[in-house]
Amino acid sequence: MSKVLITGGAGFIGSHLVERMVKEGHEVIVADILLRGNKIPRDIFKQVNFHNADVRDRAKMIELSKGCKYVFHFAAVLGVDVVADNPVETMDTEAIGMRNITEAVLLNDVEKLIYASTSGIYGHSAISDSLTEDIIVDPRTSYAIAKRYNEIYLAAMFEEKGMKSVSLRFFNVYGKRQDNRMVVPRFLEQALAGEPITVFGDGKQTRDFTYIDDTIEATLQLTETAKGCDIYNIANEEETTILDLAHAIKKVTKSTSEIKFIDAPKKRYDYEVERRFGSSEKLFNKTGFKPNTDLEVGLTAILED
Ligand SMILES: NC(=O)c1ccc[n+]([C@@H]2O[C@H](COP(=O)([O-])OP(=O)(O)OC[C@H]3O[C@@H](n4cnc5c(N)ncnc54)[C@H](O)[C@@H]3O)[C@@H](O)[C@H]2O)c1
After folding, report:
1. pLDDT of residue 270
2. Is residue 286 part of a domain?
3. Which CATH number is 246's domain given?
């Protein structure tokens, strides 16, 4: 049993990580300012040491990480519209948050920092096949630039201070408890309400939808095995068009909703990458595991209670 700090632990991915860690018997400290409410299930929450604490609060991060074996740094401002409207808060949370977390990790001799990076870092990278960690990245949004800055900062902290870390480039994670800032819950809500499913543009843009349980499994396997300072994709390796996602959601919900094509708001333009799907080869070579949940299976699981 280990003591761990999870920043952003009340959010979508964080709450699943918290749930898994609590069930495995770890002592879990959560730091979160509840921007989207608290997604930790009630029975699990009772077993967590929760702090309404901001990652931009240096002293608090130092205090909360005392005695921890791992710090999972998942707190972030995200969601295309949210980031487009709040670039300063997005970048401050990333840059100041990471500065505080690294200082806390170093001061308290935390064994490893596990950082939630993003596939958004690839931005407009040239893509002929699935994206691998070694291609030249091209982030263009405040969110993706700040994530890349942090990856580089972690590399510097390893070189300068020997601080161990792993950055996880998540690819469109989906699952229970996600809110409708993201496309999967938005389409599900529309389909279940019998309203038009609104697809931006022609729907031919692609993404790689990775199921939450696979994401958590990969995260925990890399927490144990990753060495030094490294970066891993966590991707399902399936290139899915947004239109195919809309059809899959219609199918699993048995919805009669029409699919409606609308123009993306101008503020989303930098986010509207045409193709994005990842390779999890590096993850597989390290751990023997890679995400493999079929999209319809994952979507169906969201609907089950
Ligand atoms: N969901 C995805 O598909 C996806 C993809 C790539 C990367 N990520 C990364 O994974 C992590 C988790 O994402 P998520 O989908 O669970 O998002 P989320 O918005 O559901 O959770 C983020 C949490 O961070 C908290 N937070 C924000 N600012 C904070 C601050 N200053 N101090 C403390 N807490 C703060 C929020 O209150 C929220 O609970 C984020 O770092 C995100 O950038 C997510």
Report:
1. 67
2. no
3. 3.90.25.10
Which among 107, 6, 16, 22 has a CA at the least distance from the CA of 55?
A: 6
Per 3-state DSSP, the chain is made up of helix, strand and coil in percentages (nearest 5) of: 45, 20, 40
Q: Tens of pLDDT along 1-30? A: 899 999 999 999 999 999 999 999 999 999
Q: Worst-scoring range by mean pLDDT, 63-72, 118-127, 225-234, 283-292?
A: 118-127
CA 120 to centroid of ligand 1, rounded, Å: 14
**Residues near ligand 1 (Cβ within 6 A):** 7-8, 10-14, 31-36, 54-56, 74-78, 93, 97, 116, 118, 170, 172-173
> From the CA of 7, how far away is ligand 1's center (Å)?
9
Same domain, residue pair 159 and 178: no
Q: What is the residue range of 36's domain?
A: 3-173+211-234
Q: What mean pLDDT, rounded, does the chain reach?
A: 95
284, part of any domain? no
pTM comes to: 0.97
| Contact partners, residue 242, CB within 8 Å, separation at least 6 | 183, 199, 200, 203, 204, 205, 206, 207
Q: Is 143 an active-site residue?
A: yes
Q: Which atom of ligand 1 is found nearest the CA of 178? A: 20
